[in-house]
Amino acid sequence: MTAPLTGYTVVDLSSGIAGGYCTKLLADGGADVIKVEPPEGDRLRAWSASGAEVDAAAGGALFSFLAGGKHSVVADPADLDLLERLLTAADAVVWSPGSRLTEIAGLHPDRIRERHPGLTVTAITPFGLHGPWSDRAATEFTLQAWSGGALGIGRGEQHRAPAHVGGQVGDWVAGAYAAALTLAVRAGGGGQLIDLSMLEAQILGLTYYPVTYFEMLGRPWRTERRPTVPGVAEAADGLVALGCGTAQQWWDLCAMSGHEEWIDETSELTITEQANLHAEELFEWLRHEKVDDIRDLASAFRIPNSPVGNGENVTAMDHFVERGNFTRNPRDGFLQPTHPYRLSGVELCGPAPAPRLGEHTEHYAAAELAAAVRDQQPNPLPFQGLRVLDMTTFWAGPSCTHILAMLGAEVIHLESTPRPDGTRLIAGIPISEPLWWERSPIFSGLNTNKKCVTLDFQTEAGRDLLRRLIADSDVVVENFTPRVIDQLGLDYDSVRALREDIVMVRMPGFGLDGPWRDNPAFAYIIEDATGLSWLTGYPDRTPYEPYSVGDPNAGVHALSALLLALEHRRRTGQGVLVEAAMADAALNVAAEQVIEYSAYGALLQRDGNRGPVAAPQNIYQAHGIDEFGRDDTWVAIAIADDEQWQALVTALGGPAWAVRPEFATAVGRRAGHDLIDTELAAWCRTRSGDEIVETLWPAGVPVAKVMQPHRQTELAQLEHRGFFERVAHPAAGAAAHSTLPVRLSVGPDRYHRAPAPLLGQHNREILGRLGMDDAQLAALEADGVIGTEPAMGGRKKASK
């Protein structure tokens, strides 16, 4: 058995986490990844988030994780002959700025493409290769501010500065997108320039379709920062996470805590608003209960729950131990996550040692490298002809299938009238309004280009039609809890009996086995359990939940897994079961916490808006009233190196406090962070956000306004790249919709070619293809098996 990407050669010209994680995922799939480094090596070799001393030639622990199984070749910037030979022989190159090699004009992605037409070039940059911001300074932290991710969907507290999501999560998500879209382009023949914007990846990973929401409903999702209730709470013996993603879960939490009087099924308040009314009483109750007792009770009520993970404790959690979610690094012995997905019958490459700097230079210098065969024409719709049965709901699953739909697949979104997709029900539209279920901006943002069929699986007729749909599909994707699929009799063996070569993608929250197998899992619970919440917020209180990244991160990892499975099917004719658990994907993008603790004994901690990458790094209040009439405007500033510090000092006019000699080094600036914060805060407080950005950014300082998420369309760079497309919906009206975080050299004219479907809109088309005539369809509708309106009280049967 060979891995799906065996024979696929990738030259890695990236530096940092995003490119490193992208090429790690490709290497795990079997690609030969040749990491080409300048003589001093990738800057990530010397990195440790805790400041531990590392052997830069061997590479520190995070480098060892990301570079496992790759080869290292050193290229002299003055002699690029070997690198040119490697590019000639490669199928793809992954490129990012940040090294002496990628600063060479001839190694710009555009120039590489000119010399090597047909080579797939994946470029990972903060803003994209071209446009008004393409050469502007940025860090992962300032990108969060520009994206609206620093505000999320109301994370934090109104009386404090907004809090970014910790752990450099934007870099990891960008890497995951880069890998998935490199595989997507490969499926369409390759030979494209994939121009990935890390800003756009953060918009998709850290915000929840805020522009579409604002334009459809005329108001933002949330106007104030407030902690999730209950969210991460203090129990009698530690931290516990509880979540309420639906009205039923809130009502169950009321009953669980002994407060049935809080239940108000007629309230016009949102679930979040109702929970906030009773926050203090709820937290007081939790403080007197033990974590295990709370979790047992919550599980009995089917309320999402988990312990709160961090780099120290997550590796010992019973569920992750039983599932084998961590393994020893084969070179350095520390603990690291296993693969973010599992494919039955498909070989993924196991952990392998990372190379020492230049370890393979002599080998490749002496090798005869044959030119790669690149005779395919790239398809702007690489998934054209692929039929996908989309049995997913809410965010994680639909975000995976949405990328397939935007890139050409026929995606049939399956719902039922008793249980429509959950995002239809969080439209923010009263049910007294006409067609309220068709006016959800979240559903619209996630489901353009898809077709919709309704089937009630509780009926034999519905189950029969479902089995026939499966037999007619190439791929089935579902994200129910495992018990639901078991009850339907649709495990993989049963599905494969209907179509032997089918690829089935299952996206449970915590996996198909283990003690937490059947626990409900929304994004925030996944974030809590895996450590993503741990680094978010301030040290004097419980963590804030990112409340975002857990879902889209799961979706993009599931897409990579699906594409590996399809490549395996192409080579062997065999179907594949893909298990893409949300938690497994989250553990990988939170890997640095476990790695730092296991390798160096350092437990990374949240520290407000400070972080290990830059010093100073913080969010400072600017002068000005925001759109809600509040004194609440902010800017993010991050100084990642000495050159940026000197740029800041110059832009500020060289004040005495800033020219202290100790501040000339990162160590000195970190030691003096409090003083620097005080001075920068005072300077920013008398200037507007625009004035601060206009002063600092042209000077080369990474700076950003902390954007309200629904204002993303105001960013000139996004407009230049056409990141938003206007979509007209027959019930919800026209609104801007986000696309993909890449511009493709041979891409579709539009990503959104059809609006999100109406409930049951394509029943006749799709079921007719299965042989159902008009009379049979009418009978099914009369019996409530299919339909076009929600039957929230249960299936509507025909009267006798």
Give a structural overview.
- Among the domains are: 244-303, no CATH class; 615-701, formyl-coa transferase, domain 3.
- The protein contains 30 helices and 24 strands.
- A 7-stranded mixed sheet has the order 3-2-1-4-5-6-24, with helices on both faces. Strands 12-18-17-16-13-14-15 form a 7-stranded mixed sheet, sandwiched between helices. Strands 7-8-9 form a 3-stranded antiparallel sheet, sandwiched between helices.
- With 800 residues, it is of the alpha/beta class.
- Helix 16 links the parallel strand 14 (410-415) and strand 15 (451-454).
- It is globular, with a radius of gyration of 26 Å.
- The longest helix has 23 residues, at 550-572.
- The model has no long low-confidence stretch (mean pLDDT 95).
- This is CoA transferase.
- GO terms for molecular function: transferase activity.
- Pfam families: CoA_transf_3 (PF02515).
- Keywords: Transferase.
- It is an enzyme of class 2 (transferase).
Give the strand order, joined by hyphens, for the main sheet.
3-2-1-4-5-6-24
Question: How many distinct beta strands?
Answer: 24
Q: Describe the largest sheet.
A: 7 strands, mixed
At the fold tier of CATH, the topology name of the domain at 615-701 is formyl-coa transferase, domain 3
Number of helices: 30
User: What low-confidence regions span 5 or more consecutive residues with pLDDT below 50?
Assistant: none
Report the CATH architecture of the domain at 615-701: 2-Layer Sandwich
**Using only CA atoms, what is the Rg?**
26 Å
Specify the CATH class of the domain at 615-701: Alpha Beta
Helix/strand-derived class? Answer: alpha/beta
Name the helicity range. 25-40%
Gross geometry: globular
Pfam families: CoA_transf_3
GO molecular function, one term: transferase activity
Enzyme class: transferase
Protein name: CoA transferase
